[in-house]
Amino acid sequence: MKVTSTKNTRKFKAFRKEKGQCIDCGLPHQTGHLRCQACLDLQAAYARQKRQSKS
Q: For every one of its 55 residues, what pLDDT tens digit does the chain have, with 9 covering 90 and above?
């Protein structure tokens, strides 16, 4: 398994955060979070699926 640096990803997400954009998709948002509502919903669905698969 090749180890890759996360430096560029962190810089990219920090840049988007400064601009008021979603750190995942880059769309402008006003949710008060780092992600837009669509990305928050995707993240919640993924977390819900992971919790259910562990049970």
A: 566 677 788 999 999 999 999 999 999 988 788 999 999 999 999 999 999 988 6
Residues constituting the chain: 55
Q: Report if residue 2 sits inside a domain.
A: no
Structural domain total, the chain: 1
pTM of the entire structure? 0.70
Domain of 36, in residue numbers = 7-54
d(CA 2, CA 25): 25
